[in-house]
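Forum: Protein Structure Q&A
Topic: Joint prediction for protein chains with partners

I've read a bunch of threads here and the consensus seems to be that you should model interacting components together rather than docking separate models afterwards. I'd like to see that in practice. Below is the full input, 992 residues plus whatever partners are listed. Could one of the regulars post the assembled result?
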Amino acid sequence: MSIIDTRTPDPKRLIPGATGDWEIVIGMEVHAQVISESKLFSGASTEFGAEPNANVSLVDAAMPGMLPVINEECVKQAVRTGLGLKARINKKSVFDRKNYFYPDLPQGYQISQFKQPIVGEGEVVISVGPDRNGEFEDVEIGIERLHLEQDAGKSMHDQHPTMSYVDLNRSGVALMEIVSKPDLRSSDEAKAYLTKMRQILRYLGTCDGNMDEGSMRADVNVSVRKPGGDFGTRCEIKNVNSIRFVGQAIESEARRQIAIIEDGGSINQETRLFDPGRGETRSMRSKEEAHDYRYFPDPDLLPLEFDDAFVEDLAQHLPELPDEKKARLVSLGLSAYDASILVSEKPIADYFEQVAAGRDAKTAANWVINDLLGALNKAGLGIEETPVSPAQLGGIIDLIKSGDISGKIAKDVFEIVWHDGGDPADIVDERGMKQVTDAGAIEGEVDKVIAANPDKVEQAKAKPSLAGWFVGQVMKATQGKANPQAVQALVRAKLGIED
Amino acid sequence: MTDLTSLTIAEAREKLRGREITSTELTDAYLSAIDAANDTLNAYVKVTADKAREMAKASDERLANGAGGALEGIPLGIKDLFGTEGVHTQACSHVLDGFEPRYESTVTANLWADGAVMLGKLNMDEFAMGSSNETSYYGPVKNPWRARESNKDLVPGGSSGGSAAAVSAFLCAGATATDTGGSIRQPAAFTGTVGIKPTYGRCSRWGVVAFASSLDQAGPITRDVRDAAIMLKSMASVDPKDTTSVDRPVPDYESALGQSVRGMKIGIPAEYRMDGMPEEIETLWQKGMAWLRDAGAEIVDITLPHTKYALPAYYIVAPAEASSNLARYDGVRYGLRVPGKDITEMYEKTRAAGFGHEVKRRILIGTYVLSAGYYDAYYLRAQKVRTLIKRDFETVFADGVDAILTPATPSAAFGIADQDMAADPVKMYLNDIFTVTVNMAGLPGIAVPAGLDAQGLPLGLQLIGKPFDEETLFRTAHVLEQAAGHFPVEKWW
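Posted by a regular:
Agreed with the consensus. Here's the joint model:
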């Protein structure tokens, strides 16, 4: 396979060495656990956190004579993911056996896809930034392929002084391995790629993206070169389990490789592990020690074939993806920045969409971003734990629009709903928070303030901006319930300030 | 009680239904026969007498109520490759020591659902790898047949040697067997019994210990063609647990028997006339052609040009799949475990002690042909050959040929511990020369006893059919059987 360089060296992304600037070249393999009730080739449950070896079927334990049967839901999830990555869907794909011995691999081989994966080339647009000017840059990253494979079980080495324990609950759970092209050029880009990938998978509902639970893991291929030169020898860093660690692993690995080359050495192609404690990578096995996996088509499984209608049906029911949603929100009048905050996580977007339904999108966005997300952030809560429901927040916005409360009172209502719950309209009624729109009542208050402050009246005639002071006094006297626009109009009229 | 054990399945079925005999009587007769013969013949590696009597009793109750399935009360032997719940299932390998599965293979479950009775587990070549039943961890099986005026022990063929010997020696009414390259048909030919390997996908492989998944197929070994038809009908089924099994109705094979072969086109492949083939085999083949011609069939010369590549290609594909299928026998979860200082040494010691020579040889061959740098030259090429072999058959069938007639084996049964075979494993592999093509193409093939050689040993003919056209094979095999007559074995054990 020839590798095509799709990028032009960008000075912003280069890192300095003793002999000049270096460019990092990164390719990623993301292992994403498929959301499905049962495993890829057996009926055993995929539930996380069950007792060790509770979710193990005869197939998962590789008992003699057991046969794999493909789980259609996992196939659908892979196709959905392929569609979400704008990738070519292969209507015929083949499952192969990857042969190696390990205690948590009961069959002695992993069923994977080698030569004919279910999904071919696609692309992901990542957003890198902000730079010094607060600008974000979109970069297109190529997807090489996506294939389905079985996860292995788990070896536990800390349960017994001399023995290891094996938990096969994860054995046979479906994974999607999503392989990028070597299109990434910095640790920031790699982090943005993983973030975006996770976002897409979560939108699609095909992987929960929880790296701390191991349901999404990344292998990172790193090499360095002089800007625009030939690709260097790469090292693969295995099983990095957080986005932050991916950034650290790339930085330290790139520095390690640059140091070797600048010292006149050369890079050995090898597999490495990232040690988060030391913040550096260390060698796991060299190319010479690499397994010969003896891939061959699994004779227990026929080639996986489906027709256009199968793909079409999945495509039609595909949820809106983050890029499309963001574009739609911008078309509704939101700023690109606000839109990207709202689509960053699907539950936030869903929340926003419920609040914005039938309401002004910009107002809804301001409330969600500034008030709701601000309060959640301060309280250390996620959107799923919000005490204020979309209906409640929508109710508050409705009360502003109808003129029942001012924006300022609305903040108080939000506080009350946050702490005590309840229907905003009822709260406003019961607590007498409705703003006074009765022109007569407001006029009375305005007159009182004007009568009590003759000196200020004189000053205001010379300096019309002092009208604000009168408005404030009236608002204070009415405990904020007067309609500020009505007060403003009356004050200006009474003071004889021309518009 | 020998009269009871001499009944065919069809005969016993009538007597059981007619309440002339009970399954308990029949089962006891077989258990006594096994008891008397097994020390000598070594056909069974496990006799399940208690289970057999229980099943027979239940069958008798059903028969008394006028109920019962197609095989109600018929005592069968089961090849040790089939998973039988709570019963010895070791593929006659040391590596599966003590293994008793908690599941029942689909094929045997089908048999029990039809009322059959299990007598025990039958000897076989270890993991079905062999053509003489000498690779079994439980020792060789003796062929019930001997050359005239000879005391020399002969092999029953393999890998289903226990199945063939047990059927031939009246130690069961019929037996399950499996065929990856000839393991049903060659032992059937060596023991004067009938064996059919159905089309790949006709019987479920679920619960059957795998040798080479793309070639393995279960089938029966019986005393005559009718019994094979009866047994296959019960064994065959689609199975959602085996996605290579095929969803099509199982015909009533027995009704194909007695139908005329008039007007049928029988192909005679030129490539099956091998150099150095014994004259007797050629003569037998000619006889078979004559019988079918006399019955009104048309004998036509055909060519299957890629035949000569079948055996080498088979000995790449089958070991490749086996090397991977047998990786699970690692001492971690079941069967034999030989401790080591670490996991790698435990694997090495367990597998070194657990597998016999032939199995090790095939694991090594399979590992080699799949290795980086050799895959294209061996495995990939063998798969291409396989496609060509399949195409050869498709062409012939498209030209109107209904079935193909060949010898079943290149010779009659040979001696146990044959020096030539021991010295050169390829000589042993040549036993499969007429049978492997059928597995490579996924076709059905049946071996029928057709005569005796000069020494009085049985020889068989093979019929090869179109995919899922087992009915034509039964129909044609029945004509051969009628013409050839029966060849009862002389009891010496």
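Residues 9-263 of chain B form a domain with the Amidase signature (AS) enzymes fold (CATH 3.90.1300.10).
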